[in-house]
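If you are new to this repository, start here. Below is one unmodified record pulled from the training split, so you can see the exact layout before writing a loader.
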Amino acid sequence: MYCGSSSGSNGLYTAAAREVGKVLAKEGLELVFGGGQVGLMGILADAAMEAGGRVTGVIPSFLNLKEIAHGDVTEMITVETMHERKRLIHEMTDGAMALPGGFGTLEELFEMLTWGQLGLHSKPVGILNVNGYFDPMLESLDRAVADGFLKTENREMLLVHDHIGTLLELMRNYRAPALPKWIR
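And here is the target side for that same chain:
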């Protein structure tokens, strides 16, 4: 799960993080996240734990100073680098989901999409589009398709919804596109 280390300026974001945490726990889905106790990350982890879910954080040691590792999760794994964090989260998960966030959230989201496009994984990647937060980004991706920089089948790899139950269903039913001949 990728989301902000800040809470954002709209209470809808914190409410959505709480709801996602509760739903993941209710569905028996383990939350694997960046390990911070701050912002949407902390709210999400707290909600999942309060609902009886399993929560694993993965945090680089240097971020303990900024994000402060969440002390009340099922398991906390400390790694040395951001690359190790991203690799481990990728290995531990069956899919990736993003809530609103900043550069880190977007970077991790796009890395998972890129890896999927290159055939390095066939996992679903989704965003919970709370309050239309991702609308401008989605418009940019549609422009990339229209201008010939992104193939339609690759754009369709990004699953989008504003309701967590529907997004989870889309992710459960995801089938990766066939790889282009130049990758096979």
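Two things worth knowing about this chain: The domain at 11-172 is CATH 3.40.50.450 (Rossmann fold). The mean pLDDT is 94.
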